[in-house]
Structure formats: C-alpha cells, structure tokens
Amino acid sequence: MPFRALGLGANILQAIQDAGYTEPTPIQAAAIPLVIEGHDLIGIAQTGTGKTAAFTLPMLVKLEKMIAAGSQNRTRALVLAPTRELVVQIHENVRAYAKHVPLRVANVYGGVGERPQKEALRSGVDLVIATPGRLMDLMAQRCADFSGLEFLVLDEADRMLDMGFLPSIRRIVKSLPVKRQTLMFSATLSREIEGLTHEFQKSPKTVQIGRRANPAETVTQFVYEISKTMKPALLQHLLSDPAMNSVLVFTRTKHGADRVAKQLERIGITTGTLHSNRSQNQRMRALTDFKAGKVRVLVATDIAARGIDVDGISHVINYDFPMQSEDYVHRIGRTGRANAVGEAISFISQDEHGPLRALEKFIGRGIVRKKAEGFNYHAEPVKVSEDRPRDFTQRTHQRPQRGGAQGRGRSGPRRFGR
Ligand code: AMP
C-alpha cells in the first residue's frame, strides 16, 4: 500500500518522500487511517517498527488542519514519553515530517533549566512533547495551557509505568479536556496497560504488530560464555573487527559503563557513554556523536538507552546480561532495524546463566552458544585499571564510513517488510 492511500495530504507526503521512505511499515499502514478517522488507538509495537511515524504523521494531518483554520496560539496536541532522549527523538521525527508545515513545538524534559521551556510554552505552541515529571512541574507553575487540547499520545506507556510515572500521568491527563483523541503505544499489552486504556481512552481500536516479546527477527543473537575477568579482553578482541563499526554496549551499572568506556578509549577506540550520572548535555552529545558516526562505541545502561533510535547500529553487545528479560528485548531492538541485519552478542559469566535461561523461556527459544574465533580464552586478563594501553586492536583503526562497503547504506530508500 502506498503512503498516498493513507490520507496524509501533499505537504506530509512530500516530507515522507524527502525522508526516503518508499512504503508504510505495517503499523503505519494499520494505524494511520484509524487515527485520521478520529479513533482512539492502542498500538502494540516495539521501537524499530516505525511506530513514531505511525502516530506523528496522522497527528500532523490534524494539526495542519487546525493551523490552517487558525489555532489561536493554543496547544492542540501533547505527546508524553518516558525519557528525555525519546522526547528529542520524537521531536526530530516531527521536524522531518512537518518540514512543509508551519508548526510550533515545545520540548519539555528534566535535567536542564526550566526557563527556556517555560518561555516556549508561554509563547504559544501547537504541540508539546514532554516527559511527565517536568511537565507536571511546569503545569503546577501554570506555564502550560491545555484547555484547547484535542490530541494526546502516550508513547512507550509500559516504560512510563515501569519508571513510576503513573501518578504524574494521571494528574496531567485529568487536567486535559475530556473531548480529545487519545493514542497509546506500548511494547506489550499487560494488565496495567489495559487498565490505562479504560482510564484514558474511549472505545479504542487496537493495532498489534509482531508477537509479544518477539526480538526483531532480523537480529542474529548469540552468546559467548566467558569468565568475568576475561570480558574486557573479549570485548577488545571483538572490536578488532572493523565490521563492528557502530556498537552499542550495555552494562548493568553506571560505574561499569564508565570503566568499559575508559578501557576502550585507552586503546584508541572512540567511545561515548549514556547513563544517568551524566549531565543532559553530555548525554545528548554522546548520542549525537554516535549517530553522526564520530563515536564508534556507545556504552549505555538500560534506563538511559530506553527508546533511543539510532540508525545503522551494527552490533549490540550485552557486556553484562540484563536481569530482566524485557530489557534484553529492548536492548537488541536497537539493531536490525528497518529490516537491516544486525547482531546481538551476549557475554555470559558463571552467575549470568540463570537470567539467560529465564530469557530463553521468555522468548520461547534457545540462543546459540559460540566460541569467539581467534580469541585466547587462557590469555592473561586485561587489567582495566592499568594506565598503559594493552592493544588488542589496531590503534590506528579507521572507522569505515557508514553506507560504504562495510556499513549500511543510509542514503537509499529504506524498506521494511517483515
Ligand atoms: P521507530 O519504530 O519509530 O523508532 O522507527 C524506527 C526507524 O524507522 C526510524 O529511524 C524511522 O526513521 C524509520 N522509519 C519509520 N517509518 C519508515 C518507513 N515507512 N520506511 C522506512 N523507514 C522508516
């Protein structure tokens, strides 16, 4: 089905074409017409399925009409999302798809000064994209006027619940006009999510893409069994392969993330970190540099990496295996996006076999155990605290260009089609 059959309008179709999308993803094909018709919607879909555009595009159709009719500087749409990174990412999507629409948008999230956000809200914007905590603070200071609101989106609702945002969300939604259209997106349809739909939505239509907890099928997953002390050496060994050109490494703790990043920097691998001890600016910078290909490895913790969208991640490495199976699914959903092939590698030490078995039960299949080719399992462990480099990789490693022979093309049209 072509995009033009979905009822999007010329300006938005032009922007989609500019973005290089050739056809809607399954969730877009299913959700967009329903939203344009005015239904409330529950979208069950993981990140990587094109869900952001599935709500952003029809929202823009509505906003474009309201703006054309004279929106009187009133906020018409609100998107709530769990993390700052996701807010910024949704905004990037909105900017791309609304490039031919005169839309005013305010981003609202914690960890940065309130004043510019207050000013943006007071200046009158059509759309607010916000994390619930900061938005509630600003609403308490009477900086936001949602009395003209017609469109609400709760993105990654399951994550917002996990992060304890339910009381803030309730208070925000209570203050909104009852007559509105409400969309909710979640990776899974749990009892809590069903409860939320009863609370916030009216006769919603459900669109479900993919089975529950189904890690992206384009991702190759395997496990290296390795002692804890050998993990640093194995990581260095793997990174000596230049095909690993854009790698997201997950650690369990912030401290662990810093340690791994330091180790990699010491052997000349450009590395960024994404965790909650870093300032908002540092986090944004790490993400921007990684997206731009200036940084080859990004080391992250689960909370900080939630929902981030980076094209062309070649590998996800679970340096520490996640305790929660859901986190595994979220982590590996970062690669293999848009039908591109990716690899998810997990390091499993003695005490991580339990969570691995739990995951295998959760996803209903076993994960292949492999031996790392050419790796000396009996070598001396790399001491990560030492000052002098022990170089297992080429220090002068040149990162291949994304989109070149090693990388994945970014310029051509992207296709889904699972
Ligand atoms: P999301 O699931 O919203 O995080 O989207 C994942 C990625 O898919 C983003 O990088 C989008 O830019 C991209 N994308 C969304 N819709 C399409 C489409 N119809 N065709 C190709 N790529 C898309």
Known CATH architecture of the largest domain: 3-Layer(aba) Sandwich
CA(first)-CA(last) distance: 14 Å
Total count of strands: 14
Spans where pLDDT lies below 50 across 5 or more residues: 386-418
Radius of gyration: 22 Å
Anisotropy-based shape: elongated
In which range does the helix fraction lie?
25-40%
Tally of alpha and pi helices: 15
Kindly estimate the percentage of residues that lie in beta strands according to DSSP.
Answer: 15-25%
- Ions, cofactors and other bound molecules: adenosine monophosphate
| Succession of helices and strands | HHEHEHEHEHEHHEHEEHEHEHEHEHEHE
User: What class do helices, strands and sheet pairing give?
Assistant: alpha/beta
Question: How many domains in all?
Answer: 2
| Sheet with most strands | 7 strands, parallel
What CATH first level of the largest domain would be assigned?
Alpha Beta
Instruction: Please give the order of strands in the largest beta sheet.
Output: 3-4-2-5-6-1-7
Question: How does the SSE layout of this entry go?
Answer:
Layout: H1 10-19, H2 26-37, E1 41-44, H3 51-68, E2 77-80, H4 84-97, E3 105-108, H5 115-122, E4 127-130, H6 132-140, E5 151-154, H7 157-162, H8 166-174, E6 181-186, H9 191-200, E7 205-208, E8 219-225, H10 231-239, E9 247-250, H11 254-266, E10 271-274, H12 280-291, E11 297-300, H13 302-305, E12 315-318, H14 325-332, E13 342-348, H15 353-363, E14 368-370
Parallel strand pairs: 1-6, 1-7, 2-4, 2-5, 3-4, 5-6, 8-13, 8-14, 9-11, 9-12, 10-11, 12-13
Helix pairs in contact: 2-3, 3-4, 6-8
Bound molecules: adenosine monophosphate.
Residues 21, 24-25, 28, 47-53, 309, 311, 337-338, 414, 416 line the site of adenosine monophosphate.
